[in-house]
Amino acid sequence: MKILNKILIALFVVGFATSCSDDYFDVNDSQNSPVSSTPPLSLPVAQKYTVDVLQGGYNSMNTLGNLWSYSWAAGGDYVYFTDETLYLVTSGFRTGIYENAYVLPLRNYDVIEKNTDPKYTNYVAIAKIMKSFHFQYLVDAYGDVPYSEALQGAANTTPVFDDANAIYDDLIVQLSAAQDLIANADASALVPGSGNDVMLHGDMAMWSKFANTLKLRILLRQSEKAGLVSQADFDAAVNNGIGFLGAGENILCNPGYLNDTNKQNPFYAAFGKTVAGDPAANANATRATDYAISKLSVDPRRAFIYKNVGTGTTYAGIAQNNVGGPNSASLSGIGPGVLSSASQDGVIMLAAESLFLQAEAASKGYIVGDAESFYNAGVQASFDYLGAGSAAGYLTSYPFPNSTAVNLEAIIYQKWVALIGINGFESWIEYRRTGFPADLPVAPNQTNSTVIPVRLLYPTSEYAANPDNVPTQSSGDAFTSKVFWQN
Amino acid sequence: MRSKFKWIFTLLVAFMMQFSFAQEKTVTGVVTDELGPVVGANVVVKGTTNATTTDFDGKYSIKAKSGDVLEISFLESKKSITVGAATNYNVELKQELKEVVITAYGIARETKKLAYATQKVQAKELMQAAPVNPVTALAGKVSGLNIITKNNGVNPSTSIILRGYKGITGDNSALIVIDGIIQSGTALNSLSPNDIESINVLKGASATALYGSQGRNGALIVTTKQGSKETGLSVEFNSSYTVEKIKYFPELQTTFGPGFNNEYDPYENTSWGPRFDGVPRRVGPILNDGSYQLLPYQAIPDNRKDFFVDGITKINTIALSGGDEKSTFYFSAQRSDVTGITPKDEYVKNNFRLNASRTSGKFKISTGVSFFNDKSNVAGDGGYQTRPLYWSIINTPANIPLTSYKDWRNNKFATPEGYFNEYYQNPYMLIDIARNRSTSNRLFSNVKFNYEFTKWFSAAYSLSGTFFNSYAKNTRDAVTYNPVLAPTRTDANTVASVAEGTSTNTRITSDLVLTFKRELFKDVKGTLILGNALYTYKENNLNVGGNDLFVPGLYNPSVRTGELTGGSSAFQERRVGNFADLTLDISTFLSLNGAYRLDRSSTLKDSYDFYTYGASLSMLDAIPSLKGDIMSFWKINGSYSKTGFAPSIGFINETYATPAGFPFGDIVGLAAPTNGASATFSPSFTKSYEFGTELGMFNNRLNIKANYFNTTTDNEFLTSSTSYASGLAALRLNSGSMESKGIELDVNGSIIKNDNFEWKLGVNLSKIKSEVLSLSDGADRLQTGLATSEVGIFAQVGESFPSLYGTAYTRDAEGHIMLNADGDPIVSSELKFLGNTTPDLIMGFNTSVRYKQFTLSAVADYKTGHKYYNNLVDALEFTGSTQHSASAGREPFVFPNSVYEYTPGVWSENTNITTSNGGFDFWTGTYNAIKENYVVDATTLKLREVALSYELPSKYLDKTFIKGVNLGFVARNIIMLRSAQNKYTDPEFTNDSQQVTGFGTQSQLPPTASYGFKLDVKF
Fold first, then answer.
1. How far apart are the C-alpha atoms of B198 and B118, rounded to whole Å?
2. Which first-to-last residue range defines the signal peptide (chain B) (predicted)?
3. Strand order in the sheet with B781-787
4. pLDDT confidence tier of residue B2, bands split at 50, 70 and 90
């Protein structure tokens, strides 16, 4: 056949001598898209994606978390959030929480982390911190997930699933490594500008503090189950003098949200108003639960976490799965402290959460400090974020109990309040860890489960594309198969 | 031929009488044919063993008597002469008029010798039911061909799949070649059906080996009409008028009305309200003047169906053709005006064509120029939920007099504020405020030169360009509610917006074909074809849009609020192929063919070169003794080919992109690709073999063709699924393999044939199975069509392709449905195999009966063995309008065919445990979560075409300038028999962009039928 080829080519060589050169065929590359990126270009994208998956729209972790921490329900005239509140958890349920985390933020942080140019040391440190942030939530939601072989792109499309506990251990290592990179960055290392780091605008000391706080969260998560963490772990990981996020140190993200198509804050775009100023698609469907309204009846923050009914001064909620119950117009929606404008910041971690973590750690003796002060500062930080003024009066009704037996319950309840609408996913995780708030209702009017789900199921895509590695699950697992740190 | 032999026989008898005592003498002569002297021709004195052959100069010499008949034959050519007084008889052998088909690169091949399956559809069969779109007219007429019409409407999309699927994620559409030039898939849809002389379907890769990569999926070779030489001028006028009517509207429940939990709600689209009782109830809001609608609470028959109107299609064509001794020409102009079943949907199509040729000695030049233009103006997705119009129509409860809300601007109960439905707007308003307009133009021009250098060597060169552009503009009018008029309504204003775009593409092809024909040895004729084919394609797209337009009635992005949306893209592709094709005809009975093509494609960056080859063999009348009165001919054929395949444009590229929202002011960013591409690529290969046989019986009145084929594609250009944990949502790579195999059977016969009465019947059958052999490493399932997280179209290793997977009932070993403690079915946690979605058996039935001047013809097809998931029904469950949601009277019920765990670990037949709920909660919760409920058997038997025509007897036209008049009644798709489960739609319908069927959505309208008449006049 080779001879025949030569004859054929020779035959037409006259006509196509020029046209057959490789240059002639080199027209396949895209004429419209770049083929690579740099850390300064990748970082703002990755950080925006973090907000999208964490706190953003309908499919975000926050939306599910608010439903599963019984803060939100659908109005009686809307049939909405049905799979979530009927606990119809399958491998097809909320797959974006898993899938989007990997392909959107983690993928782009990973591209940054793999950059070996020493001038991007600070970017690499940020990438490591944010990867740890996301991986903790993946473990908290799913248990074992791909980690050691994850994010290798075309090189490995069937990563193994790593042991959840081992991932947790490595996250501490990675966060410490990020802190070391920041501490040891040489003078030539670029410090991200506010146009590149849309979270902390290049404040590397704050990044280090954030990393320490994440380590604290990772360790505390394991502290309710016997034998997982010890004082030595805390000493090695967080008692390093770097400190934790304190009052006023909210970790926020804002790439420059504004009221325009695709540029609104994603939470506002989903639950606030459209660019034209009309109610967004999910705005009228999302209402307060009766439980939350009653729990917050004397809490000044209620007026900021939930919206007054109509133009009046009353607040009303509805039980989940109450189709045909009170209609949306007679119920409280999301309040102005949580949902304010198209340009509002995305929230990665509230100072209040950090302070409550410190309160718990101090109360348990893991870190030095006064648990009550942390508790009070945490409540005040929550008031501050919501714009609810001074918490002093409220704290007289809800003082820190200063009693080992009930400290945790008080702290976690305050965390639940502080995170309503902002990071309900964390509240759902903390409920699973601590069982608080103890009276948190299991969704009524459903027959699928007598407990709030304890995990998410691996998405269908893993069963399709990675069947040899993904653990087998059944739908009942969502209510029984606990993540390693849960009792 | 028969009559000729009779005549010769008569002469023979006469000569024998006269010269029975004649003396033997030596007869000589030269045998020639169109190539010159014929070497090795047989010369036989009839009825004797006396025979000789011609020498190298074509000369023969034989002893014969006056009155003897000499039979001279060479290959299939035959001639007889009767020896008279003379002694020298020169004989010119003329090739018998053989049936030929046009194959790749315009190469005509003799049908009887083809070693692979092809099937020709003639203009008459194609045109019998006056189609607008020639593709839809192919349905049921060719075995192995699956024509999928994905929707109805004024300009439906189609897919043409030959012999099953070859690619798992790649393109599976057959190559379209019009007058020898490769065209886009849609070019055939837009062709004027009247211009088509024939469509030859080249079914397998062996038939299309010369097209290399582009021929992998088989090809449709379309030949347009050319004028005939020495015919003068003839004029033909065709006109048709057809009416399209909604035929199969979904069967919905008519027992319960709007509301929730058995309580009436005057604003609801959902039918979970109380049972209809005929008592007047308020519908919609109380307006500010205190008025409201008070209507009897009862179902109005066809209230939704009556929204649709009759669609009208008018097609007028004029064609002029003719020629003198050296030239031919054909000119046609056609206009189609179509209005749709959706009010105000319009489609207009114009076609012009000029084909001309001139011969000057050994040189022939021919040219074809055609121009196509269409305009469409249809209702777009709209309303504040941006849903397809059909969704808003079907969300009307059964008691609502929908057609009374036509005048939405003036009727106070039809205005945005007054319309009853809180959640979906008045569809009559939506068709006015959401319009999708588009227009496209295609100019095709082609020039072809033929030069016959010698008797045995000729060259053909053709150069062609196709220039296409389209423009689309989608406009959405603002809807602003007047809060005074609608105090109870939540404000859901929508803003005006516009999106417009242009697309242009240019295809240039240049083909050089050299043909060498010689007799190589005695009884061995060789034909060598060498060719070069160049193909270039360039495409540019540009689109812009704006929202919240602030000048009412003006749809220009420049009067927008906020940022301009839009983007641009550009693609380019270059291919060069060099090919050789050698055919050896050994005597009359054996024909061997080998083809080889070397391709280079710009889409395979680092390994441009790849090859295709094919070999085939056919034997005609291999056992001569079988040939006789019963068997007219018998052919056996077999072929093998290996086709190299290059990916689509940009498939191997990995690019970063600016994500949605960016840039935020001066904050810029680039996102890593989530659709990755492997580092290296090599060509994919499709191997196929086929063998078959063809029998002509009873003087060719009965023709039977049977073929078996097997096609395996390896190393596919696969867009594979990945674990998302890899950081990629999809990876493009070389992987995966699929096998398609099947049998095709065509039986065509003239059952009765005489001067006044003729009955023809044809049956074709294809039984095809495509199976996924492998996907990318470690993956066993890949989404290949529409899918939600709970149900969709997939490729699954080891299953037939494509497969439907979805959530299903949990069943015991006997198939009983297992219930949970509350008496409700348990949904499977994983997706289960629910069937494959392409028919494994397709049968076509064609018949025509002619009695004198009347002809009745009909085409039906039967597709079976596949399943269909209807997302529309799935979504309608929520609205309480499905029939099964009313089947238990909205009360808890004992779930049919179920088992219950009465004692732990022991499941037994459920006789008394009822479902937890019988209303909304059950049907939209548990029942709706089990997608198996919306999967139906997709079997259909469709009567595609029925046509009755009357040809005016020529005696009435003798004294007029009119040469012929044919008048006909036509009907299309008038009967569709479906499985009992399928009460909703045509299981072939799916979204336009999908190449696999099996997943219906709200975007498809109900199935329709068309009726009309046509008139053909020839001058």
1. 12
2. 1-22
3. B781-787, B791-796, B803-806, B832-836
4. very low
Where does chain B hold its CATH 2.170.130.10 domain(s)? 102-245
Pairing relationship of beta strands B145-149 and B158-162 according to DSSP bridges = antiparallel
- B670 lies within 8 A of chain A by CB: yes
| Alpha-carbon gap, residue B699 to B703, rounded angstroms | 10
pLDDT band at B760 (very low <50, low <70, confident <90, very high): very high
Measuring CA to CA, how many Å separate A364 from each of A169, A368, A406, B470, B830? 21, 10, 12, 70, 42
Chain B environment of A108 (Cβ under 8 Å): 671-672
Q: What pLDDT is attached to residue B95?
A: 57
Please check the confidence at residue B6 and state whether its pLDDT lies above 60. Answer: no
pLDDT at B607: 65
Please answer whether residues B864 and B939 qualify as being in contact, where contact means their C-beta atoms are separated by less than 8 angstroms. yes
User: pLDDT tens for residues B198-246?
Assistant: 999 998 877 888 888 888 899 999 999 988 877 778 999 999 999 999 9
Residue with tokens 């004027």: B192
A146 and B669 in contact by Cβ < 8 A?
no
Q: Mean pLDDT by 10-residue block, N- to C-terminus, for chain A (487 residues)?
A: 48 45 75 85 97 90 97 91 91 93 97 95 97 98 97 94 98 98 93 94 97 98 95 96 96 95 94 86 90 96 95 93 89 96 97 98 96 97 97 96 93 98 98 97 91 95 91 91 96
Helices (H), B356-405: 389-394
Domain with CATH 2.60.40.10 in chain B: 2-92
Q: How confident is the model at residue B4 (pLDDT cuts 50, 70, 90)?
A: very low
Strands of B826-884 (E only): list them. 832-836, 841-851, 854-864, 867-870
Query: Which CATH number does the domain B102-245 belong to among 2.170.130.10, 1.10.260.40, 2.60.40.10, 3.10.310.30?
Result: 2.170.130.10
Predicted complex ipTM: 0.94
CATH 2.60.40.10 fits B2-92, yes or no: yes
User: Which of A23, A25, A95 would best serve as a mutation to test chain B binding (most B beta carbons within 10 A)?
Assistant: A25
Task: Give A-chain residues touching B820 at CB under 8 angstroms.
Answer: 447
Mutate to test the interface with B, among A16, A23, A26, A45 (most CBs of B within 10 A): A45
Beta-carbon contacts below 8 Å between A and B: 317
What gap in Å lies between CA B212 and CA B612, rounded to an integer?
A: 6
B565 touches chain A (CB under 8 A): yes
Closest Cβ opposite residue B669 in set A45, A260, A321: A45
What is the Cα Rg of chain B in Å?
33
H/E stretch holding B903: strand B898-903
Indicate the domain borders of chain A. Answer: 42-253+437-480
Query: Do the Cβ atoms of B723 and A90 come within 8 Å?
Result: no
Strand, helix or coil for residue A69? coil
DSSP of A269-325: HHHSB-TTSSBPTTTTTEEEBHHHHHHTTT-TTHHHHBPPSTTSS----B-TT-TTS
3-class DSSP assignment, residue A417: helix
Is the bond leading into B953 cis (omega within 30 degrees of zero)? no
Give me the DSSP letters along B648-687: -TTTT----BPPTT--BTTB---BPPSEEE-S----EEEE
* pLDDT band for position B98 (cuts 50, 70, 90): low
Which of B117, B57, B953 minimizes the C-alpha distance to B616? B117
Distance between CA atoms of residues B968 and B719, nearest Å = 49
Q: How far apart are CA A213 and CA A13, in angstroms?
A: 70
pLDDT band at B526 (very low <50, low <70, confident <90, very high): very high
Pick the CATH number of A42-253+437-480 from 1.25.40.390, 3.20.20.70, 3.40.50.2000, 3.40.228.10: 1.25.40.390
